[in-house]
Amino acid sequence: MSTLKTFTMRRRLLATAFIATAFAATPASASWGNWWGKSVEGSGKVVKQERNVQDFRAIQISVPGKVELKQGNHEAVSIETDDNIQAMLEVVVEGNTLKIRSKEKNQYPKTRNLSIVVHFKNLDDFALESSGSVKSDKIIGTDLKLRIGGSGEMDVNELKAETLKVSIGGSGNFSARGVVPQIAGTIGGSGELNMAKLAAKDVRISIGGSGSVQTWVSDNLNVRIGGSGTVNYYGDPQVSKSIGGSGSVNRKGAQP
């Protein structure tokens, strides 16, 4: 056997041994996420804290949990979770944005006991950057921007605004009911926009992956699909579409 072949075989054997040793040294409870950061297990002792906040018009959630948004005449945040998780969460207002996140960038809470209630007066921008769920009885605004960056879910029972820009960057889900004259929806992955009960006049949809959209529009519907996405619509709008993949645009009826 040549010297080069012998050297190559030795390198492969050493690489295999290194990988096997790494896995053997990894605890069975470790997850792939721990390779990039440290997940902190909840203690099981649940406590509730009120956090003082004021003067914000945007909200950014960067921790996984159950979030409830309540619009009214005051601003406040309450968090109910394990005591050790409570200590690692940071609630700050930067500029006009309320941010709820881990104090340390490489630490992530791992618990089923994380509930966040945010009371707000006005809302222009909301971003969910985790795998949590968000619910709101109502959001009333003017120009509203909603973003779901991962596999999170958001549901709004009553949504009223002049314009809405909603985007999903992963496999998230957004659903809402109400009235918004102008809507722009974007899906970059396999997410879903369920807006069949959200009455609109003009709707623009852009899908870059395998996402799906349901919408209710009266005047104009503009659709661009670059993948295998699907748009189902209600109403009798003028439809313009550009489909670069195997996507489809389908009329489902006059109204949902």
Automatic annotation (TrEMBL):
Keywords per UniProt: Signal
Signal peptide: 1-30
Superkingdom to which the source organism belongs: Bacteria
Cytoplasm as UniProt keyword: no
Pfam family, one: DUF2807
Domain named Putative auto-transporter adhesin head GIN: residues: 55-237
The protein's name: Putative auto-transporter adhesin head GIN domain-containing protein
Species in which this protein is naturally found: Undibacterium macrobrachii
